Automatic annotation (TrEMBL):
Gene Ontology CC entries for this record: cytoplasm; nucleus
Record-given protein name: Metal-dependent protein hydrolase
InterPro entries: MYG1_exonuclease (IPR003226)
Family membership: Belongs to the MYG1 family.
Entry-linked Pfam families: MYG1_exonuc
Origin organism lineage: Eukaryota, Sar, Alveolata, Ciliophora, Intramacronucleata
Amino acid sequence: MQQVFKKIGTHNGAFHVDEVLACAMLTKYTNEFKNGIITRSRDPNVWAQQDILVDVGGVYDPQTHRYDHHQKEFQDSFSKDFKIRLSSAGLIYKHFGLEIIQNLISHINDTVETTIEIQKVDEKTLNLIYIKLYKNFIQSIDAIDNGINQYPNQDQIKYQINTHLSAVINRFNPTWCEKNQDENAKFHQALEFVNTELISQMKSIYLGWYPGRYYVVQAYDSRLEQDQSGQILKLQMALPWKSHIFDIEQEKGTVGLIKFVLYPDRNEGWRVQAVSVNEDSFENRKSLKKEWRGVKDIEQLKEISGIDDIVFVHASGFIGGARSYENALKMAKLSLE
C-alpha cells in the first residue's frame, strides 16, 4: 500500500526563519505531518488543497490546521507568562510542541551515546522542557519576526548582530542578482540548517539541563546538612546549575533563598560560587567577603581569611576556592554573616 504524505502549505517568495522552522518541526517531528510535502504558493486555490497551512492565508484556526499570524486581530502569545506575539514557529510549537519534544528526545536517544543514564522524562518534566525550549530558543524567533527590540529602552544601538538564526536563514534566500535562482531548493537547504539548530538546542536541554536538574534537586533537598540556614547547596559534581536554582525556588516558594553553591573543581579542590539575583544578572544575592576579594598573594589571603587552604577569591566576590570541602563551606558560612 502506497504511503500518502500530508500536504503542508506556506508562502513563496522570500522566506524567514519562522516558517522554515515551523515546516522543519512539522515534517520531521510530528506523527501526522512527518515527511509531508511542502508547497510554497500565494494562490488561495492551492492553499485550499493543503492539509495544513503555515504563515500564510490570513486565518488562525487550529481545528482546520490554519496557522497564520499576520492578521491584525491576532495577538496570541505562548501563554499568560509570555508577552511576545507568536510567529508561525511559535504557533506550530504551541500546538505540537509536546509531541515535537518527545520525538526529538527519541532521535537524540537513538543517535547520541552518553556517559550517564538519562532518566525517562515524566509528564511534569516534559512540560518544563516544553517551556524551556520555547523560552531559550523559539521565543526569540517570535520576537524578531514581530520586530520587537531586545532592549526596548535603548535609544541608540551600539552594534549589530547578524549571526543570530533569523539573520542566517535570511541569507539562504537568493540574492537579487543571482541567475537561475531556485528558491525552493534554498528553502529546503535552510530547513535542514534550522533542523540542525533545533536538535542542538534540544540536546543542550535534554543532555545538559535535564540530567543536571536531578542532582540539583537532590542538593536542594539535603541543603540543611551543609548549614541550618538552608542557604548553601553542595553538588557532588560540577554541572550547569544556575537555571535549576531559579526553577526549583519558584516551584518550592523559596525564591531568593540559596546564596552559595559548592562543587568540586578539576584540581581536586572545591569552588564556592555566589548565586546571582536572577538568571540574567551579574549582581549576587550575597558575595564572598569584601576583604578577601581580588587578593593575589595567597599567604596574605590566608592570613586575612583565617582559612589555611584558601586558593583564591575573584575581585567581584562571585566565586572563590579552597583545597578542601570543609574550608569552601567555611568560606560560604563566613560570607553569610
